[in-house]
Amino acid sequence: MGNNLTNEQRHENMLKQIKNFRLLDDDFMTTCFKENTEAVELVLRIVLEKPDIKVEDVKTQYDLKNIRGRSVRLDIYAVDSENKKYNIEIQRADSGAGARRARYNSSLIDGNILPKGISPDNISDTFIIFITENDVIGGNKPIYHIDRYIRELNEYFNDGTHIIYVNADYKDDSDLGKLMHDFTVRDPDEMNFIQLAKVTDYYKNDKEGIKAMCKAMEDMITDYVTEEKKNSAIRMLKDGVLSEKQISVYSGLPMEVIRKIADEEGMLVK
Predict the structure, then answer these.
(1) What is the DSSP code (8-state) at residue 225?
(2) pLDDT tens track for 70-106
(3) pLDDT tier at 224 (50, 70, 90 boundaries)?
(4) How far is it, in rounded angstroms, from Cα 222 to Cα 226?
């Protein structure tokens, strides 16, 4: 009993994680891009090859719900000066960047952006952008653009919906290749773009930035906890039979969360 990590040990573990983070890690990326219109503008201008994009609003970890109450959490949701909507998703696992996931995100954004009483003809253009660690499309290309198409007329069906996959595994000397380089390195000194190097350095090396990143990580851990899972973990902790690892497996909560619950409830964990 009593194998809980001390606060100092937890803090040291967090510092190691922060040093190891890349922008390709979605938790770190969403913290770096939070309210950071400059960084989001950079990404959109390069990916879309539109240097005049002006981002007006950025939200990270943004929840959208459908009419049945099911929600999706978008990594980044941005709106530009022309009221176009952008969703940027970071996906390290190929399974999280499937075609139907892109379709679902697109449909939820559409369902939430049209004000009551406004004709669908006035709906904004939307861009769903997946930045993936691997080449999930498999064509050995740096970027893939998916738009609806009228086969019989050999022309685009201009409905304003755009899905884009960016292959972070593809590196070259283009702006896109340099951007993907920046997403996959850990050291801000190795980055090409000052907008990304500056914010990465802040959260990795600045005292206040590290403090904010640690707080963000604590909040992320808390997000794992549902009332049902928490109650299940508390019951197992009260029994005093299972180890921390076993409770983690059975409850579906990370071990760090199990330790946090035990601390809050004044219990010991094996």
Answers:
(1) -
(2) 677 899 999 999 999 999 999 887 767 888 889 989 9
(3) low
(4) 9
> Residues 6 or more apart from 99 whose CB is under 8 A from it?
146
Cα atoms found within 13 Å of the Cα of residue 3, Cβ hemisphere only: 10
Please work out, in degrees rounded to the nearest 5, the angle formed at the alpha carbon of residue 110 by the alpha carbons of 134 and 138: 20
Q: How many angstroms separate the CA atoms of 181 and 135, rounded?
A: 15
pTM to 2 decimal places? 0.80
The DSSP call for residue 241 is -
Hey, what are 38's tokens? 């400059």
Q: Pairing between strand 155-156 and 149-150?
A: antiparallel
* Three-class DSSP labels, 77-106: EEEECCCCEEEEEEECCHHHHCHHHHHHHH
Q: Are 145 and 164 in contact (CB under 8 A)?
A: yes
Confidence (pLDDT) at 134: 94
The C-alpha torsion from 38 through 44 and 50 to 53, rounded to 10°, is -50
| CA separation for the pair 47, 167 (Å, rounded) | 11
